[in-house]
Design a protein that fits this description.
- There is one protein chain.
- The chain is of the alpha/beta class.
- It has two domains: 78 residues, Urease, subunit C, domain 1; 307 residues, Alpha-Beta Barrel (TIM Barrel), CATH 3.20.20.140.
- Helices cover 28% and strands 23% of the residues.
- A hairpin with a 2-residue loop joins strand 17 and strand 18.
- The longest helix has 18 residues.
C-alpha cells in the first residue's frame, strides 16, 4: 500500500521538524518526506490540510484488562480505543491475571494485539514471581524470549530492601529498565485521597506525600548503588519532582513520567465524593499540580502517559473509599496534553507523547524518520468537541472529564502504513 499524506504540518520532535511537508509511505514504512520517490505510484492520498501530522503516540502505561479481567475490557476493545486517540503503541504493566512472569502470557498478549490489529502492545515483565515481592522473576528469559521492554512490580510493593537491591542488580546485568511505582505501603495504608484539608473535611483516609517521597528516597539510594536504569511512574508531588530533578542533575540514570490527569486535576476535583477522581497515586494539591507542569517544561519529567484503567460501572458505584482506583483515559491523553501549550511549546508536548516515551522503552517508535515504520497520528488542532462518556470507544466509561470541552481531534491513525482509524 502506497500512501501520500499531503498538505499537513509535520511535527517530528525527534528530528527537530516542524514544517509543512508531504509524507510518502510504502510497504509500511516512511519512504520519503516532501519529495516523491522515483517510480512511486499512489494507492491512496490523505489530504491533511489544516491538520498536524505527528508520530503515533506511545503510551507508557495502559491496563488493557486482558488476560484476567475481560469483564472490564479486552485488548481488542482498548487497542481500538487507542487507535481513535492516535495511540499506536501501548505499554502494559505486569499485573494481569495470570501475572506477566512467563513467556506464555507475553505470547498471548502479543497474539491478541496482532489479531485486533489496531495498535502495538509491548509488555513489562514482573520484577518478582507473582508480584509477591519475594522471589525474583526470570528477567533474562522474559527479555530474550518474551521481548519484554522492562520490568516492574506494578502497584505491588517490594518491602524487602534486599530483594529490591538484588532485583536492580539482576536488571542492570540484563540491560533492563526497572519501572518503579514509588509508594510506601505502610504510610499509604488504606488511604484513597491526598492527606490534607480536603480528605479531612470529607472524612476520607489520606495518603501523605511522604508515602511517595520516602519510597523514592530508598529507590534512589539503591539505583545509585546498583547503577540500574530506572523509570519512576506517575510522579504526583512537588517534593518528589524536586528529589528526582536533583538525582538527574547528579547523573543518576533515571527518567520519570506524569499522568495527563495529574496535570489538570487536584484534590479539589473530588468535590462531593466523585469516585471518578479516585486514582492512585491520589490527586494532590494545586501547588503539586503546578510543580508537575513546571517539571514537564524543564524536562525533569520526561513523558506524559494515560495510566489507562477501564472499569465496569459497578466499580465506581460504592462509597468513595471502597471504589476501585483508575480512569479510562486513552481518549483524553492527546487533548489534555494539547492544553499544556501555554506552558510548553507544541513540539515539546508532542515530544513528551512520542519520542521520549519511545526512548524510555527502548523501542523504534515516536519518529517520522525515513525508513522507520509508518505509525502516524493526524489530528485537527482546531476541532472543538465535548467529552461525553457514552461516546467513549473504550469499554470503560469511568472518566472525570465528562462535559469538558477539548480542542484537537484525531482524524486518521496509521499503523505500519495501514489506516486503522479514520473519522
Amino acid at each position: 500500500m502506497r500512501i501520500k499524506i499531503s498538505n499537513g504540518l509535520v511535527i517530528d520532535p525527534a528530528n527537530n521538524l516542524e514544517a509543512k511537508h508531504d509524507l510518502y509511505i510504502s510497504e509500511g514504512r516512511i519512504a520519503a518526506i516532501n519529495k516523491q520517490p522515483d517510480g512511486f505510484t499512489l494507492d491512496q492520498t490523505i489530504d491533511a490540510s489544516g491538520c498536524h501530522v505527528i508520530p503515533g503516540i506511545v503510551d507508557l502505561r495502559a491496563r488493557l484488562r486482558e488476560p484476567g479481567l475481560e469483564n472490564k475490557a479486552t485488548i481488542a476493545s482498548e487497542t481500538r480505543a487507542a487507535a481513535t486517540a492516535g495511540i499506536t503503541t501501548l505499554c502494559m504493566p505486569p499485573d494481569t491475571n495470570p501475572v506477566i512472569d512467563t513467556t506464555s502470557v507475553v505470547e498471548l498478549i502479543h497474539e491478541r494485539a496482532e489479531q485486533a490489529g489496531y495498535a502495538k502492545v509491548v509488555t513489562l515483565a514482573a520484577l518478582t514471581a507473582g508480584l509477591k515481592g519475594e522471589q525474583l522473576s526470570e528477567m533474562a528469559l522474559l527479555k530474550k524470549f518474551g521481548n519484554c521492554v522492562g520490568i516492574s512490580n506494578a502497584l505491588s510493593p517490594v518491602t524487602n530492601n534486599l530483594v529490591m537491591r538484588r532485583a536492580m542488580e539482576y536488571a542492570a546485568s540484563c540491560g533492563l529498565t526497572i519501572f518503579l511505582h514509588a509508594e510506601d505501603q505502610g504510610l499509604a495504608g488504606n488511604g484513597c485521597a491526598h492527606e490534607g484539608a480536603i480528605s479531612t473535611r470529607l472524612g476520607l483516609p489520606g495518603i501523605p506525600e511522604s508515602a511517595e517521597t520516602s519510597a523514592i528516597s530508598r529507590d534512589l539510594l539503591l539505583i545509585e548503588q546498583t547503577g540500574v536504569r530506572a523509570h519512576f511512574c506517575h510522579v504526583s508531588s512537588a517534593r518528589a519532582v524536586q528529589m528526582i530533578a536533583r538525582a538527574q542533575y547528579d547523573g543518576l540514570p533515571i527518567t520519570a513520567d506524569v499522568t495527563a490527569h495529574h496535570l489538570h486535576l487536584t484534590e479539589m476535583d473530588i468535590g462531593y465524593f466523585d469516585s471518578n477522581c479516585h486514582v492512585r497515586p491520589p490527586l494532590r494539591t494545586q501547588r503539586d499540580r503546578e510543580a508537575l507542569v513546571g517539571a514537564l517544561a524543564t524536562g525533569n519529567l520526561n513523558a506524559i502517559c494515560s495510566d489507562h484503567e477501564p472499569h465496569d460501572a459497578d466499580a465506581k458505584l460504592a462509597p468513595f473509599a471502597e471504589t476501585e482506583a483508575g480512569i479510562s483515559s486513552l481518549e483524553t491523553l492527546l487533548p489534555l496534553a494539547l492544553r499544556l501549550t501555554e506552558d510548553l511549546s507544541l513540539s515539546d508536548v508532542i515530544n513528551r507523547l512520542t519520542a521520549q516515551p519511545a526512548k524510555i522503552l527502548g523501542i523504534d517508535a515516536g519518529t517520522l524518520s525515513v525508513g522507520e515504520k509508518a505509525d502516524i497520528c493526524i489530528y485537527n488542532p482546531q476541532t472543538h468537541w465535548i467529552m461525553n462518556k457514552e461516546n467513549l470507544v473504550s469499554a470503560g466509561h469511568n472518566t472525570p472529564f465528562e462535559g469538558w470541552e477539548f480542542k484537537g481531534k484525531v482524524v486518521h491513525t496509521l499503523l505500519n502504513g495501514k489506516v486503522v482509524y479514520s473519522s
